[in-house]
Predict the structure.
Amino acid sequence: MTDERYVHAWLLRLDPAWRRRAAVERRADLDAFCAAAGRTEQRLMQHAYSTIGLRAEGDLLLWRMADTLEAVEETAADLLGNGIGQWLTPSISMIGLTRPSQYVKRPTTQEQSLFTGPRSRYLVVYPFSKSVEWYLAPAEERQAVMRGHMKIGHAYPQVRQLLAYSFGLDDQEFIVAYETDELVAFQDLVRELRASESRRATIRDTPIITAIHRPLGDILGLLSGTDR
């Protein structure tokens, strides 16, 4: 893979009418969707997360990374066109690119891609945009603010993060994602960041999607009320 890869955060909502289909039809739908997911994973990295009962907008979050935008598009079409995918509606879709940070010369493992290593229990992802004043400020001032921001983050090594650049490609400027096994520690981190100087430049950081990592088959089983 190249250093610059496309990140896709995709929240899908299930039509409740699907649950009223006959059991044999639901089983066939799940099998067809899993087959499409298998084809997808041959072309890009994809991890599944449950948002059942956590977000009104959706039930399944797919966290994806690809070398090309076409791979994102074509696999999305395959997933939506097969089985339960025909009953899923995209409610949130965010695209960004992983690129080297201008503020970090040597990223730590805490600040690198969330697509490597074992998955943590929870993923928190949201769009993020900063003010015009932030970008017009002198570079040394911005660097000093970000140094303080990163110092707070480093105090919570149990929280990994990823920043994908969306400006020019999507409505938000960034996709921000955090991965952790400890949501209480993550909330402590956010509480500290809210009081940091970097907060002054924030103009958008919602909706915040909190999701639970599970195998795709397990999530589908929860959606259907059956074991996979």
